[in-house]
Amino acid sequence: MTDQVLTLAQAAPHTDGMYWLMLTSRVLHILAAIILGGGLFYLWAVVSPTVTGSNASSTDQLFGGRRGAWAMWVGIASLLLLVTGLWNYMQIIQTNEKMASSYHMIAGMKMLAGIALFFLAAILSGRSAAAESLRSKMRLWISICLILGVITVVLGSVLRSYPHIIKSNVPAPPAQIAQ
Q1: CA gap 134, 1 in Å, rounded
Q2: Helices H / strands E in the chain, number of each
Q3: Angstrom distance (rounded) from CA 123 to CA 115
Q4: Tens of pLDDT, residues 5-50
Q5: Distance CA 42, CA 2 (A)
Q6: Does residue 47 sit in helix, strand or coil?
């Protein structure tokens, strides 16, 4: 029993300021992805089916008068995802020995998919003629956004489980405890 307690104590994370900063960054990254992905799913499942046969006189009516609020949240979520994503990527690069080039390739693909998603979501929520044009096929473009979102999550999951070696001058992360 004492050995198990010692093993658990050794596996506890080193909770310094960087730990809390990285945890905050990760939580904000996940929350922003939930906001953007959840909002897009809602638009796909609830709003876009009504667009085809809609007699709404304005785009705001399609969004229940809340297009501007959605546009604001698309911007906030996209900004948070960009800032926290770049921060997390830089921290991984700085705390690990030389990473395999395939890691950077996958990270680049994830970033491109994310940026394409941000771009399409911003246009769909906008007031421009391009936004109106895309919204005429809203379900198609939101489906593309959702596919890009799934690709981004899958690539992020691959990166999260990618083998890496922590630099010797960086405190080791907690060891996994066998159940």
Answers
A1: 62
A2: 8, 0
A3: 12
A4: 556 556 667 778 888 999 999 999 999 999 999 999 988 888 877 7
A5: 50
A6: helix
